[in-house]
Amino acid sequence: MTRERIVAAALVIIDEEGVDGLSMRRIAARLGVQAMSLYNHVQGKADILDGVTEYITDRMRMPTRMSGGWEEGVRTLSHAFRKAAMRHPRAGELALTRQLSTPTALAPVDTMLAMLLDHGFDEGTAVHVLRLFVSFQVGSLLREIHTAPPAQSPGQDRDLAEVERARTAYFAEAGFPAVAKVAPILAVNDHDAEFAFGVELLIDALRRLAPAQGTAGAHTSR
Q1: How many angstroms separate the CA atoms of 94 and 19, rounded?
Q2: How far apart are CA 208 and CA 205, in angstroms?
Q3: What would the pLDDT profile of 20-58 be if each residue is shown by its tens digit?
Q4: Domain ranges in the chain?
Q5: 61 burial class (0-12, 13-18, 19+ CB within 10 angstroms)?
Q6: Which CATH fold topology does 3-56 show?
Q7: Is the full-model pTM beyond 0.85?
Q8: Do the Cβ atoms of 100 and 49 come closer than 8 Å?
Q9: Does the domain spanning 63-215 belong to CATH 1.10.357.10?
């Protein structure tokens, strides 16, 4: 029994049932041991959740410094966060919300802050930008893993085109004029495109806060 085995078992449970399904008893049962024996290797459930966070963020493989402009840096980091989180969607939400809990989890946070500071953003703005993008990541991830077609019954196996036709009909006939007008568009869930649209929109909004080009590099985190 090791901490790594306990964290791996916890990750499997989270993948299957979400964080709410995790307990020391469930982990112990999966490993074939008594729950109390886990405490020889971990401090408790919070420690295990930190371990899961470390596992996911460690696999983001973020560079310590970003090259190029801040726009491309924000874009690269945002998509890297999402890609890592979607390997374990239910645990990805956990990693994003607990990312300040451990030194390993702080590494990608430091990368983003360093990139912004190196391009001249002041400290306060850099932190605001970080939190804005974390909030966007969490919201996008929650929507992606919890969105279900309203017309689809549990366990019903239908191809994507049929699901989209059913959703279009549902929205068109719901009795709301604006919803009906955009029903064919609203019926499609292209999460990749939605995420990319959101990232670009946020980057565009941040350009008015960006320092003048001549002041880039005035602040540094190293």
Answers
A1: 8
A2: 6
A3: 889 999 999 999 999 999 999 999 998 999 888 888 877
A4: 3-56, 63-215
A5: exposed
A6: Arc Repressor Mutant, subunit A (1.10.10)
A7: no
A8: no
A9: yes
